[in-house]
Amino acid sequence: MGSLGFWRLAQQDPDRIAAVDPDGTEHTAGELLARSNRAVHGLRALGLVPGDGVCGLVPNGTEGLVLYLAALQAGWYYTPINWHLTGPEIAYIVADSGARAFFAHERFAAEAARGADEAGLEPERLFAFGEVAGFRPFAELVEGRPAEPPGDRTNGATMHYTSGTTGRPKGVRRRLAGLDPDDAAELMTFLLSFFGITPGRPNVHLVTSPGYHTAVTQFGGTALHMGHTLVYMDQWDAEDTLRLIERHRVTNTHMVPTHFKRLLSLPEAVRARYDVSSMRWAIHAAAPCPVPIKQAMLDWWGDCVWEYYAATEGGGTIASPQDWRAHPGTVGKAWPISELLIVDEHGNEVATGEPGTIYMKMAGSEFEYKGDPAKTRANRLKDHFTVGDIGYLGEDGFLFLSDRKADLIISGGTNIYPAEIENEIMVHPKVADVAVFGIPDDEWGEQIKAVVEPAAGVEPGPALAAEIIESLDGRIARMKWPKSIDFIDAMPREPNGKLLKRKLRDPYWRERDSAI
Q1: What is the DSSP letter of 314?
Q2: pLDDT at residue 431 is higher than 70
Q3: Ramachandran area for residue 2 (φ above 0: left; ψ -120 to 50: alpha; else beta)
Q4: Per the database record, which ranges form the AMP-dependent synthetase/ligase domain (predicted)?
């Protein structure tokens, strides 16, 4: 221990460029260190102690990075909030996380204000980057605070919220070990080491996706702790990605298959305009990647395209370019510190090549769903856990995904659970019954489909579909809205009331090789 960790590296080389904001503004390690130190001093003055929570509703960039660095050296849990959420959804996370400070960017001012009001957090604990009604300027928190490191430093952690089939997201909370923050950060770097990623210059990590995703925080944060420069994108654009890779000589990034598809859709002349030869680790996950798309990326970028399968809860697999070429379609073999278990519906291990529910475990990664011990227990089998995915292991231990949990929709790499959407649609007076599920989408992987049984005497059709979708405005995030609504005379249910969703879903997937 002792060679990695942002705070340690920043003191050794404060003039190094550590991050580049989406507008091109460069920030040195020393500047970010001072800003995060001041934030710690300011929040401690508000009474925050180790184990407390801090929430951030901020776009990609150094505002969120400073909150992350403050929390992780003061023993706090930092929760980045999805900025597509509505006020009530934001309020739930702020309240459920036990946040004792909430930071919001003026870009999300309206929903941030709604969320803060509903969560009931005291006004002195609300801070804004820019102007947000009812929030104090961030400058007031840090004004006059020392730039020197705080005393009694202890490691904190991120606590991301992951959706559940009950429709309410749950925070994945890990026990804090009481380590020196730099030592804890150095331990985090094990993940990137699996890919062979090296520390220090001249490595540059391109942040392509929203920072509220677990993997984005994990890969970006770990790259920072390894001494890499972070280059932030605000909104993803295919050609802009190529431009930034060439301009900053980007060596590593984290993407989803939707990014690959859009990059490959660029005209050949545009693709040929940019030099991407600096890229050594283009890592992707979050959704299955169609074999032809992965093959095309390898043909274009060379053997730098790595894949993994994992969950916020911990554990996973990894597939090198060579592994994937030898086993097309695999998501890889278990990490050295992870184990896989494939079981049938009775919890018994299945034979090689036979599909079953995927369970994983990872050494040193005990977690709980905050406030939900029943959910924590329900997803466990001994010391393994599952997110409900279905897959099988080949003879040599390579994992292949066969199906996702029936209810889970993966659209553009984002997990969407239908129960929450169904609950909102069901309250519409013209709806008798509803089922929501994913159907194939060549660009996004899946799109959200709703099937509605209209109330008695209600005429189905485009007008009713539009009315139902519009009724979701302000109640759930737009990314959760159904792309389309079909109508059915009677929903297929068993006598006990269980919905036979597969009967509705299967016809849409009939022409596909898998039901992902």
Answers
A1: S
A2: yes
A3: left
A4: 6-361
Structure tokens at 495: 């006598």
**Cβ proximity of 151 and 128 under 8 Å:** no
The per-residue pLDDT for 418 is: 79
Out of 403, 425, 443, a domain closes at 403
pLDDT category, 287, cuts 50, 70, 90?
Answer: low
CATH assignment at residue 385? 2.30.38.10
81 and 122 inside one domain: yes
CA distance 450 to 435: 6
Q: Which two tokens stand for residue 151?
A: 């005393």
Number of domains, the chain:
3
Q: Are residues 33 and 155 in the same domain?
A: yes
Q: What is the pLDDT of residues 382-400, one digit of tens each?
A: 778 887 888 899 989 999 9
Question: Which residues, in sequence order, are CB contacts of 288 under 8 Å at separation 6+?
Answer: 257, 331, 401, 410, 445, 514, 516
Name the residue range of residue 354's domain.
Answer: 336-403
How far apart, in whole angstroms, are the C-alpha atoms of residue 399 and residue 233? 32
- Give the domain CATH number at 418: 3.30.300.30
| Contact predicate 438/449, CB 8 Å | yes
pLDDT of residue 516: 45
Name residue 307's beta-bridge partners. 284, 319
Q: Are 212 and 83 in contact (CB under 8 A)?
A: yes
Q: Is the pLDDT of residue 190 over 90?
A: no
Nearest Cα to Cα of residue 257 among 299, 307, 320: 307
For residues 450 and 465, give the distance between their C-alpha atoms in angstroms, rounded to a whole number: 9
> Does a cis peptide bond (omega within 30 degrees of 0) precede residue 202?
yes
Query: Which pLDDT band holds residue 172 (cuts at 50, 70, 90)?
Result: confident
> CB–CB of 165/374 below 8 Å?
no
